């Protein structure tokens, strides 16, 4: 890793405050390094995400993204070995087509990234809101999600980003003062306090201070949210708590209209409520809602730009589930994911955290950018040397590489 206050992408004229990371550098080390040089790197919510690899190549959301954009919005330059064996420097001024593809086209498709350079922000104070309670059951949880649906449009406009999962919420805000943050969170705090829950709204001096306190410590005691316990398919097993569990999941980018209109909010809340007995929603309020992106610069689906939530469902798959049980879980998951697709026609999904069996995945992950991505793939990898499941230009589910995937 290195920090350069006047980083200039090769062949370009503008300079930026940037940090360059080698492939393999993990978020935890990067955030700490940035903090030591008084900067902030906008990145994901876990300590072991490979920043220069799959994370940024697929899009890269952060709970700071509502204000500062996605990782693909902030990347300045990539050094990559393409499948023809050429080591290329890629940025807006050199190989711009490949730069576009690497800004959202997904890992393992266009080349092997050796290093990448990213714009930084100054080290900044952050308001953190951490709310949690013990839910009295599914109805209570449904009321909680309805409340968060009702508040999320305002929260997004105020610069909040965060996660909502089970009977808990963790949000951050780099724009508000502590008093403003307290006021903004009042409806949620009142709900949680009425149930004897815990409410903290505090100012932390930096992203690293937040990450160290809330992400690193929480990872040590991670448990599945209460709703998951109601899963009828789940095999009772104490090892389902903790880390390293397999889950069936899915992603849908939920457009602003479902938060800004009364009928939209009612529809979304009602669908979440119906889904709760089956699966746990995992909300990432981590879309680039307030960020002014450069139109046409990134290859993620444009649906990201109008979304307030990247919404996922997750159902744990017990380690000892039989193949038939696994198929049953995935099939049931498909039905539930489909209902969120039906509610959001024309929207999309996040490649990095998508449904393994995403139908029409080209459209979902990349929207109208897909034909251009495919052209770029054919230019740099005409023989299809790099291939992976549902990647740009993949060989398809019948390829021998994918025989271990369940066929639904
Ligand atoms: C616990 C957890 C938390 C997460 N939190 C977030 C989050 O907050 N925000 C978010 O956006 N995503 C998040 N993700 C999803 C994450 O972005 C993806 O899992 C992503 O694929 C991770 O990339 P990786 O390089 O670390 O993983 P890997 O599994 O190593 O790689 C993923 C894909 O990228 C390819 N790849 C890896 N390195 C390179 C390289 N150098 N060059 C080319 N291709 C490469 C791999 O071949 C593979 O296809 C999270 C995932 C987990 C497990």
TrEMBL record:
Keywords: Oxidoreductase. Gene3D superfamilies: 3.30.465.10. Residues 1-123 form the FAD-binding PCMH-type domain. The keyword Oxidoreductase applies. GO terms for molecular function: FAD binding; oxidoreductase activity. Belongs to the oxygen-dependent FAD-linked oxidoreductase family. This is FAD-binding PCMH-type domain-containing protein. It comes from Pycnoporus cinnabarinus.
